[in-house]
Amino acid sequence: MAAAERFAQSGCNVVLNGLAEPGRIAGLRRDLENRHAVRTWDGEADLRDPSAIERMIASALDAFGSIDILVNNAVVRHAAPVEQFSPLHWSEAIAVNLSAAFHAIRLALPAMRRNNWGRIVNVSSIYGLRGAANRVGYVTTKTALVGLTRAIALETAGQDITCNAICPGTTRTPVHEAAMQDLVATGGVPPGDAERILLTGKQPTGRLIAPDHVAALMVFLCGPEGAAITGAVLPVDGGWSAA
What's the CA gap between 1 and 10, in Å, rounded? Predict the structure, then answer.
């Protein structure tokens, strides 16, 4: 939601797509519309299904006339050694983390070309730059997303269309908040040290990435000052990729 908030704050109409319950999404939409005087829409697409993505993009184009900014941020994660990694989980990772971005780009790009303007932001990960054990689906798809970004950037370089990838490190999310609480509750870690210990061997800053900082970079890339940045792979990782 940090990205939706930042773009709405900048005056953009927003299409949301996620797995939250419809009532929660409806509430988020009303909140964005009331506070920022923008229009919103719920995509309601299962990103494992290319036909659902086609319907979502077609409906968004009908509703708004064009898709000027596309943020590919969907992800599933499964952890297991490669020989134990479920083929179903592998197929789901490919579909959601990678193929959904491909389909969304190919469907949104024709209108961007007609308008001679567009911005595509693919959210990869530090694991698009680094390997990790027991995360073969996640590492593979996030690395491939970087390749997709570079290919699209070159294909669109002749127009005012950019395509960039952002690679966040460990970001402050409910999952990581729960992990820190578990360190305190069962690991005997003092509350003030949980964040640093969680990130040991990862982010040299010892601090989780704020989602709003990632969203702010997205908005910058889509603004006038980001017009010359395309094909870039930009870490937001507290120094992780520099170590």
Answer: 14
Nearest to 129 by CA among 53, 237, 13, 35: 237
| CA of residue 222 relative to chain centroid, distance | 14
CA pair distance 133, 146, nearest whole angstrom:
19
| Average pLDDT of the chain, as a whole number | 95
Is 24 within 8 Å of 31 (Cβ atoms)? no
Q: Which sequence positions are flagged as catalytic?
A: 138
Q: Which of 79, 203, 232 is nearest to 130 (CA)?
A: 203
Is residue 163 within 8 Å of 156, Cβ to Cβ? Answer: yes
Q: What is the pLDDT of residues 181-205, one digit of tens each?
A: 999 998 889 989 999 999 999 999 9
Q: With CA atoms as reference, report the closest residue to 148 among 166, 122, 119.
A: 122
Adjacency order of strands within the sheet including 118-123: 69-72, 118-123, 161-168, 233-236
Task: Dump pLDDT digits (tens) for 129-162.
Answer: 999 999 999 999 999 999 999 999 999 999 999 9
Predicted local distance difference test score (pLDDT) of residue 20: 77
Domains of the chain: 2-169+209-237 (3.40.50.720)
